[in-house]
Amino acid sequence: MPFTPEQFEEMSGKLVLVKEEIGKFIVGQQEAVEFSLYSILADGHALLEGLPGLGKTMLIRTISEVLDLSFSRIQFTPDLMPADITGTSILERNEEGMQRFAFKEGPIFSQMVLADEINRATPKTQSALLEAMGEKTVTVLGETRQMARPFFVLATQNPIEMEGTYPLPEAQMDRFLCKIILPYPAKSELKEIILRTTGSQHIEIQKVMDAEEIVMAQEMVKEVVIADEMINYAVDLVSATHNNSGSSDDWAKYVQYGSGPRGLQSIIRLAKARALLSGRYHVSIADIKTVAKPALRHRILINYEGEAEGVDVDGLIVKLLEEVRQGASVQ
Hints:
Elements: H1 5-25, H2 30-41, E1 46-49, H3 56-66, E2 71-75, H4 82-86, E3 87-93, E4 99-105, E5 112-116, H5 123-126, H6 130-135, E6 137-140, E7 143-146, E8 152-157, H7 170-173, E9 178-181, H8 187-197, H9 211-223, H10 228-240, E10 255-257, H11 261-277, H12 285-296, E11 301-302, H13 304-308, H14 313-323
Parallel strand pairs: 1-8, 1-9, 2-5, 5-8
Antiparallel strand pairs: 3-4, 6-7, 10-11
C-alpha cells in the first residue's frame, strides 16, 4: 500500500530528530552519522574505517540506543571462531533428566551487530558473517534460522594496523553497502570531545524510533521516486569504473577491476535514503553524486601501476564524476 505525503513528511521529521539526538553525544563526524543512517534506511550494511579512538564503536552504539534496537558487539581477534559468532548446539538436561541438544544463539542474532576490527579475524571467521549479511539467515549444523528484522552489520577496521590482520576479500567487501571514512577531528571538535568525555556532565540519549518504525522507513525508501535519467546517470558512473569502458581520461589505465551490479544497487538505494532523510520523495543528481564515493570506493581495485603512482581511489572517483555528464553516456 503506497504511503501518503503526510506519512513521508512525518517520517522525514523523525529521521531528522534521530540525527539531532545522535549529535548530542557524537561530536562532528557528520558524514559518518549520515551514511550510517542511509545504510540502515536502505536495509544494508556499512564498513567504517578510521584511526583508533575516533569514536567508531561509540557511534554505532549510540545509533542503536536512539533507534531502540537490540545491540551486540563482537570483538574480532585471530582466535575468534565461527561458532563464537553464530552460536552452537550444546547438550543439556531437561526437567525429566533427558539429555538433548539445544541451540544457543550467538551475538549475530541481534538487530544491530557491531563487528569491531573485523580485519583482525581469520578469513574462516570472517566468512561466518557472509550468509547473515547476504541472506539474513544463519545455518548451523544443517538448520537454517532467520535473523531479526531489521538486521544490520556495522563493521569497523583501522587502516594503520597491518600486523596480525587479514584484509577482507573483495567478495566480502562487496557485501557492504558503503565504506565510510572517519576523518581526524578538527581542533574545535577535539576541545568539545574533551568537554563531553572528561567532565561530570552526563548526556541522556532519548529513544526516537523503534524497530517497527525503521521497517516502515525502509519500505518508504523503496517508494522514493527515481527518474530514468537518474538511473542512466548512475549506470554510466558504474560503467565508467571499468578499465575497458572507453574512457578518454588517463585514470582508466590504473583500474584493475571496477564496480559490479551491487555498486549500482548501492548508489540507488543510498540515494533514495538520502532523499527521504532530506525531506524529498524523489532522487536528485546531487543525491547520486554525494553517495558515489562511499558506494564505490571499496569496489574499485587499483592495479600495480596505479599503486606505484600513488593513485587514490577517492580521487579517481572525483575524476569520474567530473567526466561522466548527466544525460551523456560514456561509450
